[in-house]
Design goal:
Two copies of one chain form a homodimer. Chain A is 42% helix and 18% strand. By secondary structure, chain A is of the alpha+beta class.
Chain lengths: 592, 592
């Protein structure tokens, strides 16, 4: 094809073929000028014509109504600082999350159903465990008032909720008991359940219904609540005392626009995976069709109770230190350091004060910014024990193995619980498990099961530090196939659990863990340990298969060898037979 | 190896080999019980021993100070509903984001520097464009008061900020003018710049400094501000009038803990990519070493001014509709529908009212929930024009090509601007571009450049809907190599831009676009169009290379053919020569 024709073809397809890109350099500025004008024109044209072709909504003919045209065709007036100032307004956190509801896990009706159930179940399990009660949680998804609506009920046997707290817990975002402490729990933000209620209200206009009872001798309280999104405050619709024939517990009901569907990322998958990581929990699920599914507890023993810890000095930023100095109830610097932090003995507190050249009996609130800066540096220069780790409750290698085995039929299982580590002063602990072979699909990529504080994470896999660690581990070292930048492939399930007093999620919907290097490293170390064990298994199995092949091959020739020997040595038929047996025996022994 | 030895080896490596997993099923419940106890014990042991080995902090010998032991070894008391109630508290949005600062893009010192600059530059560009001013923005990163601190200054020639608004804009999260409107702009949340100031305060204890001037005839105002994180309110440290010899503009200075480093995801990369997508902007960058880098504008024309639009009725949820009915200034239902929404003429408003069986002159605030439900359904049954699209300002195919060419030396470039589309009632428009071959690395994965409203997105690539679309496109159809679940490989750069009145980011740090199916689909359509053009180029080039090879091969034999013919036909040497020329000529013509 001639050069000229080539060029013509290229410009026909609008593609730009530029073997001499450098030469084009000078022309760019011109092109840019031209293009700006052209684009501006095009934008106007597009706006009149294109949408009718491109958009999936049901559309009439693109006739612009006459009163509409008048409204939008007036020229744009440029804004002044004063114009802009008039537009400035406070944004309520509820308004913010209404518009950004995908941040809370309410991107689409299917996920909305899962997120609502997850938030409810998380709260129930946290409350039961904190109160030392073996959790029994019932989840009912019933058809709602319209076709695409469902009524979700989550009921537990937990300690119940004090009446005065109910409205704010269920109808105010950023309210709760778990944010201001360092303790391993499922909830931590004070957003989840209110967000679920807000989504219900947004899509169905209906309030959230809560029933709670704190003791057999007290009546149950029943509330119906709405959230005033402009103020982020609860609006009480119903407040009454009712009879509820249980000892104690809480029941939440939310009607929402949702989609119920089985398979990956379904309610069932979430409940199954929850049961695996929480063998002390009894779950019952009633589907919209009325089917009852029971996930019975496998142990009567609650996980080791975790302690609340104080912040570790190494994880505290200067700004937080200044705020703590201002807010503390301690009378002296030394007692402030000792009581408001973990791992600071009176002796270490004195040491820090000295290093900062501050009087240990100084009043904390009187310490100036520059002095705080010195104190901050002194803290980071002083040797302080690592944070305590009895605030963490890992699942444990044995339980991970047991969990994997109940769910997955494989040929090989392994699990690792790493020792605790620290990121930004927060203790955390990583666990990993593998299942390989058996009934698992051998073509396609490995499947990753992620957990944070025993809660399965079903969405945003690719955004998660755990996934990143799985991808960045070189599985080819462990006898698996893996393409660059992808998960390993083969009949493999990888399970990762992070336990921490504060899990750094990438968004409020708590679906993925943020990329802190300490976390990525620990996950990788756990995976490498699992990988080495897997490699031993795979290599042994391959070697065994090869041996088997060779053995079969030799075995085939033993009779012929025997015949040859019989002829050469003039053996009897019986002797020949015995020779075959002996040779086979030798082969067996040498190969096994 | 014997079965017995195999088993022993497996248990040595702690791996569990379970060829007959089903048989193990029964044993699980027992194992679980045993394991629970064992783990509990182990957790206690671990807490005393492990941290010293596992943690990257500088550590003393793990001696538990005596007063510490007393504090933590007391038994855990289970909490009652009343205990839990005492812990319940409101969480200020500033406290929330201090603890979750990775949500805002402040995970680590290097990213913190970039995020701070990005938020400042975004604001400057938005303000200039809205005021119809050609933006000139200067970014200075100077060494700070300590080794790991930097002082960032962002100065623009924008319209300035009215004095009364300065404190809240810079020291209150969730405050701004862009959240409550539908208009394409870089900022949209009212969080960014306050978050940068808060991070500076958190890590250095220093306030943010702002200087702003709205007109040549007025004095400049200078503020130093802190944010009261407990209340999420500004605290004014300095408030004064100063001389600033500019016509108008804003200067923001923030000192923060940061790390300055070149390369991928650096400030330079961000500024370069910003210049590409914003050819009307002049940027100047002064590095900590005092080096000055200029990114000069390539055009004097501002992008087409975008209009603010009203929400489209199809994108409004029931809950929002109820709130709008309650808040509107309109006196009748018909005028409410006409004035508070886009694309609803008085005629269509009457149509909707009729379909909902509501009187069109009804007072909006008097409409009950059930009636609102009917109205909501009526809206979705009524044919309404798509939202207007002059609210969008795409970069345009020519400018994308020009931008790619200035930055990347390749053999092939192409770009596509899709027609506008709609997600959740919000208009958006996707553009894509490719650069292939030339100086691009031919081994390894393709590089993806992502933009949202002309802002380059440098982090969280794997969490982004754009990346998902690139991965889920089958590039093998377009003559490229691609592994399952990975980016295509080869000397390729993929550029994607989303323009919208509301970009749904996966977190407040605005680094990745959420996975709305409509967005993923549009990106894929744009990529497929680009891909088809690329395939034409690659296949043509391959064919040309093959032809060239064949031609060379034939050419080699022409002289021999000529010699043979000369001998057979008794030709003269001149005739032979002419034959060679003729044959070569035929070959040339047949091949070109």
């Amino acid at each position: 094809m001639g050069r000229a024709r080539k060029k013509a073809a290229a410009s026909k397809t609008k593609a730009v073929h530029a073997k001499k890109a450098k030469a084009a350099g000078k022309a760019v500025k011109k092109a840019v000028k031209k293009a700006t004008k052209k684009t501006a024109k095009k934008a106007v044209r597009t706006s009149k014509k294109a949408p009718a072709e491109a958009v999936p909504l049901p559309l009439p003919e693109p006739q612009v109504p006459s009163d509409e045209r008048r409204a939008t065709d007036r020229p744009v007036r440029h804004a002044t600082a004063e114009d802009m100032a008039r537009g400035q307004r406070e944004i309520s956190v509820a308004e913010f999350f209404t518009k950004n509801r995908h941040l809370l896990g309410f991107d689409n009706p299917r996920k909305a159903l899962l997120t609502t159930i997850k938030e409810g179940v998380d709260n129930s399990l946290d409350a039961c465990e904190e109160a030392g009660i073996l959790p029994e949680v019932k989840v009912v998804v019933a058809p709602g008032s319209e076709e695409d609506r469902f009524r979700v009920t989550i009921e537990d046997n937990g300690p119940g909720i004090v009446k005065a707290q109910i409205p704010k817990i269920f109808a105010k975002l950023l309210y709760g008991s778990k944010f201001h402490r360092l303790k391993m729990s499922r909830g931590q933000q004070g957003i989840g359940i209110s967000a679920a209620g807000m989504y219900g209200q947004l899509t169905t206009g209906k309030p959230v219904s809560i029933t709670s009872k704190t003791s057999r001798n007290k009546p149950a309280h029943h509330y119906e609540l709405e959230i005033d999104t402009k103020k982020n405050e609860p609006r009480i619709i119903v407040d009454e005392t009712i009879d509820w024939p249980v000892d104690r517990g809480t029941r939440v009901e939310i009607e929402l626009e949702a989609k119920y569907q089985k398979g990956r990322q379904s309610v069932e998958e979430y409940l199954e995976q929850t049961a695996i990581a929480n063998p002390h929990v009894s779950l019952q699920f009633v589907t919209p069709e009325g089917e009852v599914k029971d996930y019975k507890r496998a142990t009567d023993q609650l996980p080791a109770e975790t302690r609340e810890i104080k912040p570790h000095p190494y994880g505290v930023e200067l700004g937080v230190l200044i705020k703590m100095l201002h807010d503390t109830k301690a009378q002296t610097l030394q007692s402030f350091l000792h009581t408001d932090f973990s791992r600071v003995s009176m002796r270490v507190a004195k040491q820090i004060s000295d290093a900062a050249k501050l009087y240990e009996r100084a009043r904390p609130s009187r310490i100036a910014r520059q002095e705080a800066d010195n104190l901050f540096k002194a803290i980071n220069r002083t040797k302080i024990m690592n944070p305590p780790t009895d605030c963490l409750s890992p699942i444990g290698e044995e339980l991970i193995l047991a969990g994997l085995k109940t769910q997955i039929e494989a040929d090989f299982y392994t699990a690792v619980t790493r020792p605790p580590s620290v990121y930004r002063g927060n203790p955390f602990q990583i666990e990993a498990g593998l299942a390989y072979g058996g009934s698992l699909q051998s073509d396609g990529l490995a499947r990753v099961l992620r957990y944070a504080n025993r809660v399965p994470l079903l969405y945003q896999q690719s955004a998660c530090a755990m996934t990143k660690s799985v991808i960045s581990t070189d599985w080819r070292n462990y006898a698996l196939q893996q393409s660059n930048g992808a998960l390993p492939s083969g009949p493999l399930i990888v399970m990762v659990h992070m336990a921490s007093v504060w899990v750094p999620f990438t968004s409020e919907s708590k679906e993925a863990v943020a990329h802190y290097p300490e976390i990525i490293k620990e996950v990788r170390l756990a995976l490498q340990e699992c990988g080495r064990r897997l490699a031993v298994f795979i290599r042994r199995r391959r070697k065994a298969a090869e041996s088997e092949k060779k053995k079969a091959y030799i075995q085939k020739y033993i009779p012929h060898v025997a015949i040859a020997l019989r002829e050469m040595l003039n053996l009897s038929e019986r002797q020949e037979q015995s020779l075959v047996t002996q040779l086979t025996d030798v082969l067996e022994r040498s190969r096994s």
